[in-house]
Every structure is written in structure tokens, then in C-alpha cells.
Amino acid sequence: MKIYVASSWRNNIQSLVVEALRKAGYEVYDFKNPEPGNHGFHWEEIDAGWQSWTPGEFKAALAHPIAEARFGLDMKALTECDVCVLVLTSGRSAHLEAGYTIGAGKPTVIMLQDGEPELMYKMTPYICLDIKEVVECVKTISQKLNGGYKTMSNELIFDTFGKPSMMVKIPKFYLDEVITGAPHVPLPAFVIDGVEIPEIYVSKYQNIIADGRAYSLPYQQPAVSVNFDEARKACENKGKGWHLMTNAEWAAIALWCKKNSTLPRGNNNWGSDHKHGDEKGVCFDGCKVLTGSGPDAWSHDHTSQGIFDLNGNVWEWVGGLRLLNGEIQVIADNNAAKHVDQSPESNEWQPVLLDGKSLKYSETKDGIKVTTEEPEGNWNGCRFADLETDVEIPDTLKALGLFPADDSQLTDYFWAGLSGERLPFRGGIWGNASYAGVFNVNLHYSRALAGTSLGFRSAFVNL
Q: What is the per-residue burial (b if ≥16 Cβ within 10 Å, else e) of 15-44?
């Protein structure tokens, strides 16, 4: 989401607001530093004696090439922004900018400081008193603009055996809503057999197993020590539409979180969040926490209505994706939600193609790259943000959370094994610190792996 921060050159708070919004993950236009090497417009660039201009000289200066160029830069950012933040105290220019965005129907936030009260500030409902409140206000606006959590809901869904699971309904959204410049097509998670589906339901909590079936319930010890096929069977045993959460579904949620600046925190530091030590869950064994026992910031939308523990606690198997000797293979659309064959010999597996050539991961000196050439090396890892490529990355790979959609410096880690069949688990564990997160991917192990750090969650679609 793009934000235009309007203020005065003499306002020292403006730079702090810009910094705070950027740290929150937003694209922010700073009129004092609008582009590299450009430190904003000053009338001295046209005439050192500008303060003594007559009205006629001022009018002529507005048509000067420098004024035209700098106006064009600011105006482009103003027209393209999604939200304007007016930081008081400020003068005529900033108030004209805020008036433009209000008139254009763009959400406009006003951060009050010293200054004379102004009745016309009632034109916007977004009035804040400090920087923290501004960031939270912008977050709320972002959620509303992008389909936000208010369209999501918690639903208790019963399986064919009459047993309940707490699920989060995720309505369909489109690729261009979460990736700038992408086409207006639904994410793979919302397509089954080429037909769009209106929503998916994802377990609110990492699952337990009861009577051989998977359940999403709060304050439970998550099931672990299950291999891929055992996790998938526990989900599919619940009945039609129930399945192991797919990579397509996980990636859709990860992209939504990033776009809405709600990348979840979680148990990635032995019961707490590595950056926010005061955020803790109920730790039952010195490392893992009970499902959903952390604060709201540990959910995908930072509310109590969200999906919990996608960052850390235990790894989670996901379906519909594998590597075969480094080649990236998927089950088409979100068809892995249909109880299709995901065995090693299944004909459902299809390579991801670019100009008729299959895409592969290959080892580099510093990590992993995407290529159409034969893979080199055996295995390696790197930060997700540092994945390399020597080809044009298709939108499909970004939509599946297998390559960065932009230059955000995500520290979530990515591992790939380049020999044999390798299946994915995601999210990280209790000790991964900054390496854990919704863009964390581990494609290094076989489907037979089982351990006390590896669990799963089920999902549901109406078929």
C-alpha cells in the first residue's frame, strides 16, 4: 500500500512518521527525499531572491521547468497513493495535498500536534495523536482497502463424524490485490479444476489428532511426529472437502499478511517472539506452546479472529508441492484439496514451466537460485529475500510463495534439497528466531520425515 506523508519542511516529526510507516511495511513517499539523490524542492533552485517576488514573478516561476518537474514528481505520488497522512503542524501546501486526497475519496489521516483547532478536519474520521496511533490507523485502513479481516470470520465446522473444528473463512481475493503489477486473476488457492471457488476455510489452530482425524481446537498440544502421508490421511479422514492445508493456501495467506502489514509474530524463541520478548504463549515443554495461546499479534491479521501460530512453534506439512531432483512440481490449481493422489508416482504432479522449460532450484555459492538449467549441488539455503534467479520469474511462482514478489527484506529462511523427492513444510519452529515466518519454506526432506518439531493443519473447501 502506498502512503503520501504531507507536512512542513520545518516539521521534525515528519521524518519519524515516514520511518515508522516504512518499518511497518508500507511504501511511503517522502517529499523531503522523493528519490535517490533528490532532496526535495526549494524555490532557491529557481531564484535565490524568491522571497521578494511580486505576484507576477511568482506566477511565472510556477511555469519554470524545475517547478514543473518537481510538481510532477509530488503530484504523481499524490495521485497514486492509497492513503495520505497529514502531519501537523504544516502549511498551505500540505493542506492542499490533504484536501486533494479527501476530495479524491482517499483515506486521509491527520496527526495532531500543536496548532490552532480547525473545524474542517472533521472531513476525515481518521484523527490521531501520536505516531503509534497513526501506524495502527493506517493498518486498519489497509485491511479495509484489501478485503481486510472484517470479511473473514470464524466458523465451527463439523466433519462427517460430527466433531467440530474452529476454522477461519478466507474469501476469494485476486493476485493484483497482493502483488503490485500482477494480473487480475484469483490466486491458485481459489481455483479447483479450473473453476473459481468463493472461499477456503483454514484451521485457526495447529491441529491435534483424535481417533485418527485432525482437529483445530484452542489450548491444545499440537500433534507432532507425523510424516507427510500420515498428516494428509488424518485430514482426509474427516470427509469430503477436508484436506491437508496446501502450499497454495498457505502462500495466499502469506501474501495477504504482507500486503496488509500483518506479518504474524509467534513462538520462534522458546515460548516467546524473538523481537518482542514480552509476547509469550503458554509453554508446556520448554519450547512449544499450546495452540492459540499467544497474543493477537501471533495471528495472521493481528486480531483474535485470525489464524494462529503460522510463525514458529512447530513446522507444518503442506500439500500440492514438491521438488523432484530440483525440479519444482505442483498439483494444478488447488486440486490437492480434492483427495487426489499425492504419492511419489502420481500423474497429478506437473512441473512449473517457463517458455516450455521446467523451473528448478539450483545451489549457488551463497544460497539457492531459480533456473531452467540442470540443478547444481546437493542442497543449500538462504533468506527468502535472497533467492536468486537467471530467468524471468513467472507470476505462478510468486503466487505460490516460492520466490519473492518484491524487494522486501524478509528474513524468513528457504531450504531446498536437490536430489530425489523433497516435500515442503513451512513456518519454522520455536528456536528459528528471525528465520521463522509465513514465507519460511523447507524443501529439504523426504515425505517420510517425522519428528517432535513437525506438525500440520487441515483446511476445508465445499466441493
A: eebbebbeebbbbbbbbeebeeeeeebebe
Distance of CA 286 to the CA centre of its chain: 29
Give me the architecture of the 149-463 domain, per CATH.
Alpha-Beta Complex (3.90)
- The CATH class for the domain spanning 2-145 reads alpha beta
Q: How many beta carbons lie within 10 A of that of residue 429, not counting itself?
A: 24
Q: How confident is the model at residue 40 (pLDDT cuts 50, 70, 90)?
A: low
How distant is the alpha carbon of residue 129 from its chain centre? 28
Closest CA to 249 of 149, 331, 324: 331
Count helices and strands in the chain by DSSP H and E runs: 9, 28
Number of C-alpha atoms within 13 angstroms, CB side, residue 246? Answer: 33
- In 10 A of CB 104, how many CB atoms? 12
Q: Report CA 211 to chain centroid distance, whole Å.
A: 35
In residues, how long is the chain?
463
Q: Does 9 have pLDDT greater than 50?
A: yes
Q: Which residue in this structure is represented by grid cell 530425489?
A: 420
Q: Which amino acid is at 440?
A: N
How confident is the model over 195-213, as pLDDT tens digits?
999 999 999 999 999 999 9
Contacts of 225 (CB under 8 A, 6+ apart): 450, 451, 452, 454
Query: Which of 461, 447, 351 has the alpha carbon at shortest distance from 397?
Result: 351
User: 10 Å Cβ neighbour count for 125?
Assistant: 10
Domain boundaries, the chain: 2-145, 149-463
* Predicted model pTM: 0.72
